[in-house]
Each structure stands twice: as C-alpha cells, then as structure tokens.
Amino acid sequence: MGEVDVEVGGILRMDGQETKLALNEGGSLFVHITKSQQGSDTGMFTCHIRGLDIKNIESGLLGLGAIDPYFELSKKFVDPDHGISRWHVVYRSEHILNSINPYW
Question: How far is CA 99 from the centre of its chain?
C-alpha cells in the first residue's frame, strides 16, 4: 500500500491549492484543499477518499482474495520546547472488505 505525509498549510500556500504526492510504496495521492469560508480554526473536516487498483497483497485461497483497505488521518504535534514533531492518529476509517477500489 503506501503512505504520505500531507501538511495542509503548505498546500494552502500553493497555486491552485492542490498537489500530487507520491506514496512511499508506489502510486500517488492527489490532494486539493480549500480554506474555510468561515475563518475559524475549528470546525468539521469532510473528505472523500478513493483507491483505484490498489495492489492486492492478500491473494487468499486460489488467488481469489482481496485486501481490506482503510485509511488513517493524523495530526502533527510539535513540542515547542524541544522542536520535536510527531504524528498522532486522530481518525482511522472502517475497513472495506475485499476491495481493491475502495471509496470512503
């Protein structure tokens, strides 16, 4: 599968507020972010995520199995005293059973 770290602030500063990011295990993630129209630092985050032709690493019996993909959203926390940053999972999606083309 793969993963990629996305920092919203960096994408908001880009022309068109979108980018294509390479996943570490192959494939790409396209990200488009729109700044809040209400101007608040708090609110609701809504997104749609779709995987297309994800590599099947669970061949199963007779090669007929498929993966059970999920995604995680993490938030970057920075320790201002030590300058150390860490990513903490704030949401993990449900698994979509036996799918190489999931949509959440």
Answer: 17
